[in-house]
Amino acid sequence: MSLTAILLLLSAVFLLLPPPLTSSSAPTAYELLESYNFPKGVLPKGITGYELDESSGKFRAFLNRTCSFSLEGSYQLSYKPIISGRISENRITDLRGVSVKVLFLWLNIVEVVRDGDDLDFSVGIASASFSIDNFFVSPQCGCGLDCGDDVENASLPLSSM
Predict the structure, then answer these.
(1) pLDDT tens digits, residue range 77-92?
(2) Cα separation of 58 and 149, whole Å?
(3) What is the pTM of this model?
(4) Could you tell me which of 7, 76, 118, 123 has the fewest CB atoms within 10 Å of its CB?
(5) Three-state SS for 139?
């Protein structure tokens, strides 16, 4: 076999191999949040992907389905399969796809602002402030932060909206 034939054979083998894995992969949605000074617990577990226009801050994050859970026994949150908005350092505006149940009404959370060690959540006409300590862990669909060992039921939404 000639040297040229061997080189052609080796070239063909290398073309069929998958590309090498690199250590520099795109950050997860949770890592992206942290790069804008937000804790990862602002999003529930289960984000399957996201899109970000770095020049404008416009983003979309994706879940497989609607995700609902209760926090602190009195707040019920719901995330739609697509969550969108505009993110910048310490601020998420034009938020869509996240709502909170207040008394008997579901209100859309439209803005989240980090103010020191607090996160301020706005529904437009009112806002509430919570310690950032409450958001270091991402809640799970169905059970929030109180999932215990019942992992099978943790992915079930509390309600379908």
Answers:
(1) 999 999 999 999 999 9
(2) 37
(3) 0.75
(4) 7
(5) coil
